[in-house]
């Protein structure tokens, strides 16, 4: 009669696996690092949003410089935050894309202002792959290195979508509304250490952004309450999701990681603001 090894793992049934997935969905298990308060991350978001609003009001070229500065912050900390095995090349490629994209948008004299950004992305991607070719460490973790660099390039170049708003009807006012919403909604991140508040952090970020954006839009003749409400809710929620996603990475405990995540959360909000401004404002 065959014997059964008691140490042999018993395969789970399909129903058991389904039940386990449902349990994880209802009660997600967060890594401890995701439940820590990040004051530097919140303050970094507030300060960058404030500087962007002031720069865009002053002049679109200064606004482009602010975006380039934020992209350089991302280039500085992104490889370390995501654990890139080739930090220098990743930072170089991200920096090239992040600086050139707002620069070419600022130098484009007529619509469509974003038409040269794809060329910048190609240049940055070329720099990324060229670095991989000249690596002398055996190109360890090549796929990971390329993926991290490509994600950083995407975030840095998306930030260029803020720049045309300074040159379109109602665009500067929309930037101010969005930046107010970004700053106010960042307060929702403070709830991370509290178990009871954690499930409501994303709705709170969206609501804070929508309310503050609506109030700011009410005070602006060019934006209005509805557009301000929608812009604020979208950017507040998107920026919060970006920070929460990056907040599970170990380097987020350092100032460099938190400033990188703060800059990234503001840069990625540029695209929805640009699209909503074109549809609802000007």
UniProtKB/TrEMBL annotation:
Annotated region (Disordered), positions in chain: 1-23
Domain of life of the source: Bacteria
Membrane-spanning ranges: 39-58, 64-81, 88-107, 113-134, 146-163, 169-188, 200-219, 225-246, 258-277
Keywords: Membrane, Transmembrane, Transmembrane helix
Keyword Nucleotide-binding: no
Descriptive protein name: Uncharacterized protein
